[in-house]
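Bumping with the actual sequence this time:
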Amino acid sequence: MSATTVAVLDYGSGNLHSATRALARTGAHVEVTSDPEVALAADVSSSPGVGAFDACMRGLRGVGGEKIIGTRLAGGRPVLGICVGMQILFEKGVEHGIETEGCGEWPGTVDRLDAPVLPHMGWNTVEAPKDSVLFAGMDDDTRFYFVHTYAAQTWELPEPERIAPPRLTWAEHGSRFLAAVENGPLSATQFHPEKSGDAGAVLLRNWWILCEQARGERRADRGPLDRQARDGVARLRRGGAARRDPRHRGAATGTGDRPDRRVGRGRGRDRRDGDRVEEDDAEGVRSGKEIGRSTR
């Protein structure tokens, strides 16, 4: 059986190296590309991003990224947005008084956090729903690495009548904001899973297993946690170091979901990306600084 192919969309936003390495650890074949044909042909696609919302949107439009995302989702094919790659999925972003149209997959605005200390940079816990696929197998005190000043702070999509609503994960830094969304084939995280140690590795592995299900290649006898996933979760539960230090690499967990069903506006593929921090805090990742639920 061939490995699941992940196309990491290169639209000139940030360093893709760590995201590519983290995705490759799931067992997927990863290819960085700005070629629409390659991105559309891949089993799954990821859109990492750092920088300003407006700049990321310009870069995304430059490679036809919003159309790639929209076309994939219209066919029920998985897409993962990371950091600004999550923000650009919303209707618009407002930064320094500049309003920029996003991809419009979800209604709502990405704007500045109401916090005394910005950017929000370091480790923080999240509030994930009990039925989350991405966070399956993780404890409530598991921490993830954030670096951002802007975020989506409300969820405006009406609840669907016939299918399950999106799973929303929240975090807090001065104000409450969306830390992750699971919406059929469309998943996104405001934090950086590739910089979040074992926790991030578990989350990416969960997502990869979900993508394998969508691809129809998951073995019937495979349990909800494969061996690599169990090892990663065990490390997380052994103590703080495994949860907090990105030098400890882990894996993930699986669960049964229907990644081909999505609730959203899907209005023909706009874009959004909005992380106002220019550079990742690599030193912060190495030192394993924590922020916790409250602002510091």
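The tokens above came from a reply further down the thread. Residues 5-287 form a domain with the Rossmann fold fold (CATH 3.40.50.880).
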